[in-house]
Amino acid sequence: MASGRLTVDGGSLAWESSGEGPPIVLVHGFALTRDMWDDVVPGLAAHHQVVRYDCRGFGDSAAFDASVSYSHGDDLIALCDGLGITRTALVGLSFGGQVALLTAIAAPERVSALILVDAVLDEVPWDPASQAGSEAVIARTRTEGPQGGRAAWLDHPLFGPANERPVLAQRLAAMVATYPGHHWMGADCARPVNPHAVDMLDRVTVPTTVVIGERDVPCFITMSDILARDVKDARLVRIPGAGHMTPMEAPEALVDAIESGIAMGSKAPG
């Protein structure tokens, strides 16, 4: 395994690379870290170069200059450039799924296949319980600071199925503990996406697989249905028994879905 840190304007990105072969870049979920991919990396690295990193503002990449605007997509392309990767499969979970999606829209020539795992899609309404969970995060951050926000985030319905397993709950808590909470406090300076991703799905031209845990919250199931419907020729894979944290809850099934999605990309023209 190789690891390092790439300097970007206003911050830096901590990364790891395992295995050899056609590249895959993994993008983690909100307030989490690259460690959420621990259970899928060994299976993927048997046949691929697997790169995972902490997005700006999270994990080991948490420190950044709040006065410098940026986009996570630009950071992702910069990381690929720094590692000499000209074209890669992209796999993203939740927030990371939207980062991967927007990157594939902006730079399709850099993406061989797109695998969106329990991916967020802005502007799609959240179900009442999930919305209430998100509002509780902001409210507790205001009254208790980031520590309260982190506790409320771990109690969000998104993590319900994973929290049923004590080992997974402990791993989630360890990752969330590294998040400073700046998004919840309005201190992030990522450039807004305009138009919204949901309005650009017809621009996706790379082979796309949409993966959803069957126990995910209702709004994310709706998001996955919209992605599968509106991205041309997208394939929808439902993972039985898994919730929102599919890479941790059903890693073997996810590896199979990723490998089949990459195979779709290898058969696509160009």
Automatic annotation (TrEMBL):
Q: Name one Pfam family in it.
A: Abhydrolase_6
Q: Does the keyword Hydrolase apply?
A: yes
Q: What do the Gene Ontology cellular component annotations say?
A: membrane
Task: Output one GO MF annotation.
Answer: hydrolase activity
Q: What is this protein called?
A: Alpha/beta hydrolase
Establish whether keyword Nucleotide-binding is in the entry.
no
Q: Which residues form the AB hydrolase-1 domain?
A: 24-257
Q: Which domain of life is it from?
A: Bacteria
Which keywords appear in this protein's UniProt record, sorted alphabetically?
A: Hydrolase
| Source organism (scientific name) | Candidatus Aeolococcus gillhamiae
Q: Which InterPro entries match?
A: AB_hydrolase_1, AB_hydrolase_fold, AB_hydrolase_sf
The record's SUPFAM superfamilies line, in alphabetical order, gives:
alpha/beta-Hydrolases (SSF53474)
